[in-house]
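Readers of this paper often ask what the protein records in our data store actually look like. The remainder of this section carries one protein's record, kept here as part of the documentation.

:::
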Amino acid sequence: MIEFTTWDIIRNLLLATRWTVLLSLVSFVGGGTAGLLLLFLRISKRKALRGFARYYIELFQGTPLLMQLFIAFFGLGLFGIDVPAWLAAGLALILWTASFLAEIWRGCVEAVAKGQWEASASLGMGRFQQMRYIILPQALKVAIPPTVGFSVQVVKGTALTSIIGFVELSKAGTVVTNATFQPFTIYGLVALIYFALCWPLSKSSQILERKLNVAHRNH
């Protein structure tokens, strides 16, 4: 049996943490981009586009992320397509993240007073111009805290990708545990690393929400 020192254990977990952080960033940026597109579809004047966005959101919010990962990884394999674990993990998390961010942002857009829509329409602005110059800048202030807060869920969601073989923090914890037979120590360190990743995001969300609420009341 290979002997692992404390430093070996920590080093292996930190190396795997890089992939957790990278997957979280890819999922959040990709999901944010797709979520913005979904937002425009969700508030479109065309019923078909609104319906597509609504059913997409309900599908991905209403099914477990674990099942979505299985489908992304094993589903295409049924057609003879070999999907790497990192690609399946990234795709599933992007689609899942997009559904939640789109709905969060829709609520923020709807929080903008209807008079802003009417005023911008009276200036001859089209739908895209209204969103770009009038609505989104105001909705952004409301959207920042819940968006930052949701990023915590994305980081924690990456742990589920271990089930399809993607080697991130939780998967590395399992591998090192099997090699060292020290589950309490290993998973304790894994929990501490997740806490170190998520706590600053949670705290930032609370601070931003408090500051923006104060600014809103003063305004």
